[in-house]
Design a protein that fits this description.
Layout (H helix, E strand, L loop, with lengths): L22 E7 L6 E9 L2 E9 L4 E8 L36 E7 L5 E7 L4 H4 L3 E5 L16 E6 L1 E2 L1
Antiparallel strand pairs: 1-2, 1-8, 1-9, 2-3, 3-6, 4-5, 4-7, 7-8
Bound molecules: copper (II) ion (CU) and zinc ion (ZN).
Length: about 160
């Protein structure tokens, strides 16, 4: 855009109208938290690599999921809906459990200064199928098995995935 070309509005696609090669989200605080962060999904030979960062979270483990709706408008992020679940009949799990929702990313470990980084490769996700959905970070640790959401508590940060 630095060349003064006419700007385009892209809701979920890249600004140049080309194919989506990466999905990104900016996480905003929810449920009264101060948690912010980013998410990035890139293709890999074995599915997709999901990279999530957070700041200003409480130390320890926090569940992270891709939720089915790209809508973080609710103050508690309930508008994001349930876990993204493209696998019919699946139960909640972790990123590498045999039975899982496609959006189950496990936990992000937050350090003593409130920062965390999660990098996970997921075999049944792609950049295309996460665009237009949301990434949600939770108050508590995900137990990686309890339906529907691993007992991970409130939704403390949320961001909508857009293609770039
Ligand atoms: Cu969640
Ligand atoms: Zn789940």
């Amino acid at each position: 855009m630095a060349d003064g070309g006419s700007p385009k509005v892209a809701v979920v696609g890249p600004a140049d109208g080309g194919p989506v090669s990466v999905a990104v989200a900016t996480l905003e605080p929810k449920s009264g938290s101060k948690v912010t962060g980013t998410a990035r999904v890139t293709p890999s030979a074995s599915g997709a690599v999901v990279l999530v960062t957070v700041q200003d979270a409480s130390p320890g483990e926090h569940g992270v999921h891709i939720h089915e709706k790209g809508d973080c408008s609710d103050p508690a992020a309930m508008s994001a809906g349930a876990h993204f679940n493209p696998n019919q009949g699946a139960h909640h799990g972790g990123p590498n459990t045999p039975v899982r929702h496609g959006g189950d990313l496990g936990n992000i470990n937050v350090n003593a200064t409130g920062g965390g980084l999660l990098v996970v490769t997921v075999s049944d996700l792609s950049v295309d199928n996460v665009v237009g959905r949301s990434v949600v970070v939770h108050e508590k640790q995900d137990d990686l098995h309890s339906d529907p959401a691993g007992n991970s508590g409130a939704r403390i940060a949320c961001g909508v995935m857009r293609g770039e």
